[in-house]
């Protein structure tokens, strides 16, 4: 929509597509976008209220959130989405919010921003609908999850999938630290236990290591330059006399 400078090629494209070389003003594009977004908010509200009624007003949403910062934490974004299994047993994922949030990323402020902005746009109380909350494993994100008191904090699905793959092929052991009573001394002691049952898969682990070594080999500056030349060859013009 940023058409403050319209090139001749762009005008030619418009004329071929529409029969007119006149470009719409920027405010016209914003009007279209506002109308589409208003319709999206209305439909999302209707879907959530319908699903909440089908769930007998019990929490049913998985609320996901994340934030990113730049310029030493002075500039940032906060985003939130939801996922749930609908009454028709279909997995649904909806992106609800992406908003600028500069300055201090205190957990209380981030959580308040997510809930208040969602209520403003969709007219729903997202906190009362949340059965699970999910984010990455950073301490700041985990603090936000704990503020949704009636929901269950859940690990990031990408991290869980990665851990399952690493555990399954034997690249990493699935261990946990437990506190137990030492029968010899009668005192509590800390013990590290292996949780993965039936052992690793050495063939898959060996394959992963070979792929990693191959990737590291071609990541060297020398090979990166060679691959760039191969992927973008200089083709000379062909003349036929």
The main pleated sheet reads as: 5 strands, mixed
Kindly report how far apart the N and C termini lie. Answer: 47 Å
Approximate helicity band: 40-55%
Radius of gyration: 27 Å
Model regions low in confidence, pLDDT < 50 over at least 5 residues: 237-241
- The overall pLDDT, averaged over residues, is 81
Total helices: the number is 8
Across the major sheet, the strand order is 3-2-1-4-5
Strand content: 15-25%
Q: Globular, elongated, flat, extended or rod-shaped: what is the shape?
A: extended
Structural class: alpha/beta
Give an overview in words.
There is one protein chain. With 241 residues, the protein is of the alpha/beta class. The protein has a domain at 1-150. Helix content is 45%, strand content 22%. It is built from eight helices and seven strands, in the order H-H-E-E-E-H-H-E-H-E-H-E-E-H-H. It has helices spanning 8-18, 26-54, 107-122, 126-129, 139-146, 157-169, 202-218, 221-231; strands spanning 61-70, 75-85, 91-100, 130-134, 152-154, 175-181, 188-194. The strands form two sheets. A five-stranded mixed β-sheet has the order 3-2-1-4-5. A two-stranded antiparallel ribbon has the order 6-7. A hairpin with a 5-residue loop joins strand 2 (75-85) and strand 3 (91-100). Helix 3 (107-122) crosses helix 5 (139-146). The longest helix has 29 residues, at 26-54.
């Amino acid at each position: 929509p940023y058409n403050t400078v319209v090139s001749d090629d762009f005008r030619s494209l418009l004329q071929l597509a529409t029969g007119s070389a006149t470009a719409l003003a920027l405010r016209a594009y914003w009007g279209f976008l506002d109308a589409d977004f208003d319709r999206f908010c209305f439909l999302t509200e209707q879907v959530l209220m319908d699903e909440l009624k089908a769930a007998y007003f019990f929490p049913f949403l998985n609320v996901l959130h994340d934030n990113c910062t730049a310029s030493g934490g002075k500039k940032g974004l906060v985003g939130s989405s939801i996922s749930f299994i609908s009454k028709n047993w279909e997995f649904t994922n909806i992106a609800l919010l992406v908003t600028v949030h500069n300055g201090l990323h205190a957990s209380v402020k981030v959580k308040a921003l997510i809930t208040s902005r969602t209520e403003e746009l969709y007219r729903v109380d997202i906190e009362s609908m949340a059965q699970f909350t999910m984010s990455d494993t950073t301490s700041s994100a985990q603090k936000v999850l704990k503020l949704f008191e009636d929901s269950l904090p859940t690990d990031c699905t990408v991290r869980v999938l990665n851990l399952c793959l690493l555990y399954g092929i034997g690249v990493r052991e699935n261990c946990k630290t437990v506190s137990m009573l030492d029968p010899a001394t009668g005192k509590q002691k800390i013990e590290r236990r292996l949780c993965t049952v039936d052992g690793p898969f050495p063939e898959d682990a060996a394959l992963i290591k070979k792929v990693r070594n191959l990737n590291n080999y071609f990541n060297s500056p020398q090979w990166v330059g060679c691959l760039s030349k191969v992927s973008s060859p200089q083709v000379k013009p062909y003349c036929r006399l």
